[in-house]
């Protein structure tokens, strides 16, 4: 085997966590639940003994939407009524370009450096996703611990300017 693509996304989704918003692909999770670092460092490297240079970190180019119970309470872990959708894509798993459209139409954005995740909200629609801040932090993490690289699922979900792809490539370098 040359390397393993580690899916460190889809850790928290509306189907499994209906009652509160969640970071779908947190790099860290101080609550002790799932995280990218726990999967890569804790499981693959420390428990299974896989060398870091045989692992690639996954970057989701999509997010998950929840419906907030109260539009005025919109942080991580806010009360929710299950899955939501963004108007532009109509999906509970909007791709990055649809999330950007939602943001360009007035959604507020937040980057949480503790979990290394982004989210946005407008009215009762809340979306957890990765943007340039979290992608940069995750690619830097991969470089710092000596991973072989990163991969995106799915690159076709990036926006028309290839914002996430260019961000990851720029941080990784040549």
Automatic annotation (TrEMBL):
Q: Which PROSITE patterns match?
A: GH18_2 (PS51910)
Residue ranges annotated as coiled coil are none
Give the domain of life.
Eukaryota
Instruction: Outline the extent of the GH18 domain.
Output: 1-174
**Cross-referenced PANTHER family:** CHITINASE, GLYCOSYL HYDROLASE FAMILY PROTEIN WITH CHITINASE INSERTION DOMAIN-CONTAINING PROTEIN
Q: What is the protein name for this chain?
A: GH18 domain-containing protein
Tell me the organism: Stylosanthes scabra
């Amino acid at each position: 085997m040359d390397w393993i693509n580690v899916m460190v996304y889809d850790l928290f989704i509306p189907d499994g966590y209906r009652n509160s918003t969640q970071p779908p692909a947190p790099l860290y999770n101080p609550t002790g639940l799932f995280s990218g670092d726990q999967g890569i460092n804790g499981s693959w490297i420390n428990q299974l003994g896989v060398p870091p240079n045989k692992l690639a970190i996954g970057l989701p180019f999509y997010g998950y939407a929840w419906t907030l119970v109260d539009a005025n309470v919109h942080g991580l872990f806010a009360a929710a009524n299950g899955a939501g959708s963004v108007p532009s894509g109509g999906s509970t798993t909007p791709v990055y370009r649809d999330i950007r459209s939602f943001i360009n139409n007035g959604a507020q954005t937040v980057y949480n450096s503790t979990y290394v995740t982004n989210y946005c909200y407008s009215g009762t629609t809340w979306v957890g996703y990765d943007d340039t801040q979290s992608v940069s932090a995750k690619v830097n993490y991969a470089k710092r611990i000596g991973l072989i690289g990163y991969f995106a699922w799915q690159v076709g979900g990036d926006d028309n300017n290839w914002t996430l792809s260019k961000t990851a490539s720029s941080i990784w370098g040549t």
